[in-house]
Amino acid sequence: MITQGAREWFMLIEVTPENSVVLRQEKEHDRYLVDESETHDRPMTAGEVDAALTDYVNSVKARATKK
User: Fold this and answer.
1) What is the rounded CA–CA span in Å between residue 37 and residue 25?
2) Where are the domains of the chain?
């Protein structure tokens, strides 16, 4: 979770032998601005998980500094 003032960003990646689920949320105070998930029909590799997390963190940092 990343926080800045009243804003929170959250990402969860769950990998099972059968699939992967990626959950992204962005919240300001008690209101969700983004609440989305995606399911992949195969397990993500460790490299794919690392890349997804890095991309998300960089995206959040870029948007947070614009405020």
Assistant:
1) 9
2) 1-35
Strand order in the sheet with 7-15: 2-4, 7-15, 20-28, 31-40
Residue 53 CA to residue 25 CA, distance in Å, equals 13
Give the Cα separation of 49 and 18 in Å (integer). Answer: 15
- pTM, 2 dp: 0.83
Integer Cα distance of 11 and 2 in angstroms: 9
- Partners of 22 in the beta sheet? 13, 38
Residue-wise pLDDT for 25-56, tens only, equals 999 999 999 999 999 999 999 999 999 999 99
Q: Are 10 and 1 in contact (CB under 8 A)?
A: yes
